[in-house]
Amino acid sequence: MIEFLKRLRAKRVPVAATPQATEIEHWNRIEEQARTGERIFWLNHPRVAKPYYEKALVEGLRWQEWIPRALGRPAELALELGCGKGDGLASVWRAGAARRLVGVDLDETRFAAAQARLQDAGGNVRFRAEDINHIRLPASTYDLIYALQSFHHFENLEYLFGEIHQALTPGGFCVLDEYVGPARFQWTDTQLRLTRQLLGLLPRHLRMYRNGIEKREEGRSSVQQVMAVCPSEAIRSDEIVPLFHRTFEVVHHNDLGGAIQHLLYSGIIHNFPDGDDATDHLIDCIDGLERTFMEHGIVPSDFVLLIGKKR
């Protein structure tokens, strides 16, 4: 994974002067690539993503649909931590999960694109540019606070969970759809071994990087290499679940997988065509194997959906 991201970053020209600037540049580069339609991450492929989102259903509903049912109404005010260019805000708004929204992100240059995605929301969405590690939130204000694949970039976890808890209204919810696997992408030997074995079963044309090199295994970059690409990457990801359980009354904890697929598809997901029966069958079998590995305790779930209620 990190080698693939390094190849993306190599296309940039200036060298960022600070960790925050490196962070902003990293995500802007990825989003620039994504705008071209390039598939970068494993969940960019609809067939790969399908079982992930099925595992994330809550009582048969997407969590965005479940929240207003659980509250008995839409959230009066919802907050997204790490809103990026607004996809998550748009999803919550269009699901009718909240009447008003606030999006927070480190990079205010993203807000124009987010606002464009939410034109139908009008003045019901606001934005704050802030380092979320040090954010201050007003008490008993939000019915819903959520983060989508952003929380593993936050270091000040104990403080953040405390701020979120006190900022929720009585009965309010915190939702995380999140990577919670090994910190700094320090994959386990078991993950790497199983990924290597599954790669060996794939047809060669599916294992090719864009530069023509054949992928035979997924590597384990050093912590320093991971930080050079993205200073906050998975900084304390393996501590998120226990701290969440300690802070909130956990209503739902869905294991979404990814301990193998995240690694397996890294850098080669673009090779898997859509709507091809043989490819779809292969993808389904890979997901089935990962589920079996999880059920037997061979690998954990590196991605989870967590829904917690204010105690």
Highlighted features:
single chain, 311 residues, alpha/beta, Rossmann fold, 7-stranded mixed beta sheet, 12 helices, 7 strands, globular
Topology of this protein?
Blueprint: H1 2-9, H2 19-35, H3 46-55, H4 63-71, E1 78-81, H5 87-94, E2 101-105, H6 111-117, E3 125-129, E4 142-148, H7 157-167, E5 168-179, H8 189-201, H9 223-229, H10 240-247, E6 249-257, H11 261-264, H12 277-295, E7 303-309
Parallel strand pairs: 1-2, 1-4, 2-3, 4-5
Antiparallel strand pairs: 5-7, 6-7
Helix pairs in contact: 7-10
Q: Measured on Cα atoms, how large is the radius of gyration?
A: 19 Å
CATH architectural designation: 3-Layer(aba) Sandwich
Could you estimate the helical fraction of the residues in percent? 25-40%
- CATH topology heading: Rossmann fold
Largest sheet: 7 strands, mixed
Count all strands and give the number: 7
Number of domains: 1
* Straight-line distance between termini: 38 Å
SSE series: HHHHEHEHEEHEHHHEHHE
Supply the number of helical segments.
12
Structural class: alpha/beta
Adjacency order of strands in the biggest sheet? 3-2-1-4-5-7-6
- In round numbers, the mean pLDDT is 93
CATH homologous superfamily annotation = Vaccinia Virus protein VP39
Name the shape in a single word: globular
Query: How much beta, percentage-wise?
Result: 15-25%
Low-confidence stretches are 8-16
CATH top level assignment: Alpha Beta
